[in-house]
Each structure stands twice: as structure tokens, then as C-alpha cells.
Amino acid sequence: MRSTSNPAFRKLPVGGAGQGQYGPNVGFNQPQGGIPGYGAPQTASGADDRPMTVDDVVIKTGLSLGTALVTGVIAAVWAMGQAADRALGPVLGVMIGGMLVGLVLSLVMIFRQKPSGVMTLAYSAVEGVFLGAVTGLFEFIKPGIALQAIIGTAGVFITMLVVYKTGAIKVTPKLTKWIIGATAGAAILMLFNLLMSAFGVQTGLRGGGTLGIVISLVIIGIAAFNFLLDFDMADRMIREGMPSKWAWFAAFGLMTTLVWLYLEILRLLYYLNND
């Protein structure tokens, strides 16, 4: 498999149920044999052993997104109520707790390199709580910003999916290396800014203003291009016939990029709406 900047897709097993006895499966852009868009003819094996299909990825990703939306809305409404009562302590506690629990769950998934519906949905629920608490505070300060962030994130996701499916931008080894390098550079820059902030040094990278807006736009662009690698990796998992249960792992990988993108779009909108 080609490399990807998303750690969720690193070191995945090569091949799977679609190799050999099942035959090659079908990816997002490569219909061949069987029912178009649904992979090669299925066997009577268990649901988790049959080859992974596009529908599997779509359904698992939809369930993950739905879980995050439900917990996110609940957390956002609660956070706005707390903000109205000037009780920010509990909200900050939920934000930090959700961020840490989400980080732990993601690291477990990444290092286990095993698909798990329970872990993926748990990660989605926790990230929903985290994002909901953050969104609630932003919405209380700047009414309407939450809907703008959701629409913006959905727009970027759909745009990059169309770009990938139409082949407008090919995921080549050269592009992959560029995206991985840009993602690593953005991570290092953010870590540097975090460390400087801890020592009371304001770099201006995340403080709003022209520089902050430019940095956010660049990071949003990098996150958007990461979707191309995520789609390509899921496509390869399908074509190589990995068992259907691995669709949960593809959904997890897509969720990590969605969380990153949403947070950055929310930050950018706050900068732009800040008087």
C-alpha cells in the first residue's frame, strides 16, 4: 500500500479476503466484475470475512459521523447553557477530558492496527463531546458560527471526494510525499507554538490577525488534501479484498481527518468574525 500521512492507515496488512478465493474486489474508481460499486460476487462466508465494499465504508463512516453529531449536539447545547451561566470551568474540564480520552482511544486504535466497531464509535462519541463543548463556547460568543463550520467542513469533504472520484487530482507517490511532508511540517509548527505558549511566548501563529488567518488557510488546505490520501487508502483496501470489518478502520481514519478539519475551520471562522 502507498504511504499516507494519516497514522490510522499506517502498516495495514496487505491483501485479505478479496485475494485468492474471492478474487480482486472493486474500489471507488475501479469497477471490474461483480456488481458495479459493490465488489466481486460474495461467498457464503461470515459477514466479517467477506470482502470489503464501498457500501461498507460509507455505512461505517455514516454511523461514526452520526454518533459524533448526536453527542456533539448534546454537548454543544450543554456548553452554551453553562456559558450563559458564566460557568466555564465544567466546560473546559469536558473539553480537556474529551480531548485526552479521544487521544488515548486514537493511539490505541493506531498502534493495535485492528478494526473495531466499538472502539471507532467510542472514539466518535468522545470526539463529538469534545467538539460539541468547543463549538458551544464559540457559538455562544459568535452566534451562527457552528452552522458555518459544519457547512464548510461538509463542503470541503464533498469537494475532495468529487476531486478524487473524477481523477481531477491523481494520488501519485510524489503528491503523497508532498502531503505527508506538509502535514508533518504543520504538526511541528503547531507543537512549537504550543511549547512557546506554555512558556508565555506568543508567536502570533494562532493569535488571529493576518498571520493567523494565513496559517489557518494553509492548514485547512493540508487537511483537505489528506482526504485524498484517506480515500485512496480506503480504495486500495477495497481493491485488495480486505475483510469487511476493516471498513471500521477506514471510517476511523476518515473521522480523524474530519475532526482536524472541523476544528481548523471553526478557528478560521472565529478569526474572520472577530471584530
UniProtKB/TrEMBL annotation:
Transmembrane intervals: 57-81, 87-111, 118-138, 144-163, 175-199, 211-234, 246-263
Pfam families (alphabetical): BaxI_1
Keyword terms, alphabetized: Membrane, Transmembrane, Transmembrane helix
Stretch list, region Disordered: 1-26
Domain of life: Bacteria
Protein name: Bax inhibitor-1/YccA family protein
